[in-house]
Write a structure and sequence with these properties.
9 helices, 9 strands, nine-stranded mixed sheet, TIM Barrel
């Protein structure tokens, strides 16, 4: 039986939090309802997903700028409307038990698993940074009353600022490229508040960085962590959460780590 989750509110998330990266993407098609529901079944504390806008302004869940890698179609998402995207199969590259899987909208994700586990939404409008993705995502969060059960993340600081402007109490995670976490923390995170979370590449995480961020009453969530030795190192550093494709493995490694501490 999956471990009982103590809470899904941001203020008292499990430490460390196990986020299923794009859902339980080691076992199911990434960024699909199947992957998100499987993560819930497996006992993950939260899921991470990627949001962007279709050509007709709908918030859909997909990481890439094109549908080529994860569906049976081809084309750029910003040139396709929702009806066209919904015709694609997002499960064809996995075992038949996942057929059919459609590309979900954020609203569909909220309707299916919202409030059942914590949700990290990455704003991936990197090629169209001036679009209204941040505001549309916040609007859906408010509509589903999930203000304390989601976190918005992005490499785009401007997108995070707009999301916080639309919802001042919203936790946001600043993603950093490998080798930049400490500099960006010093330059940006310290100007904000405890609702700003640092999301560094796992190689950048040290005990010193974690202690510095904790000194600002904030959190560190590392990405993407799939090997046992990396998980153990990060737990030892005191990280507050990890993003992993394999939440089953991560939960086993966390249990090992906590057993050794007792």
């Amino acid at each position: 039986m999956p471990p009982k989750q103590s809470s899904i509110n941001y203020v008292d998330l499990n430490r460390p939090t196990i986020f299923a990266h794009r859902g339980s993407s080691h076992y199911a098609p990434e960024n699909t309802l199947a992957a998100f529901e499987l993560a819930l079944e497996q006992g993950a504390n939260g899921i991470e997903l990627d949001a962007k806008l279709s050509a007709d302004g709908q918030v859909i869940i997909m990481h890439d700028d094109t549908v080529d890698r994860t569906t049976n179609g081809t084309g750029r998402i910003k040139a396709m409307n929702l009806a066209e995207i919904k015709k694609l199969d997002a499960g064809s590259k996995f075992p038949p038990k996942f057929l059919p899987q459609k590309v979900p909208t954020l609203e569909e994700v909220f309707a299916r698993v919202g409030g059942k586990l914590f949700i990290n939404i990455e704003l991936t409008n990197y090629t169209s940074p001036a679009d209204d993705l941040p505001e549309k995502v916040v609007s859906l969060i408010k509509n589903y009353h999930l203000e304390t059960k989601v976190l918005i993340s992005s490499f785009n600081f401007f997108a995070l600022s707009r999301a916080r402007w639309a919802l001042h109490s919203l936790p946001v995670g600043l993603l950093t490229f490998s080798g930049t976490a400490n500099a960006i923390f010093q330059a940006r995170l310290m100007r904000w508040d405890a609702l700003i979370v640092l999301h560094p590449a796992m190689a950048d995480v040290t005990s010193g960085l974690v202690n510095a961020v904790h000194g600002k009453q904030s959190r560190v969530h590392a990405y993407v962590v799939n090997q046992p030795q990396d998980m153990q190192r990060l737990f030892t550093c005191g990280v507050d959460g990890i993003f992993t494709d394999d939440p089953v493995l991560a939960l086993k490694e966390l249990d090992k780590y906590q057993s050794k501490k007792q």
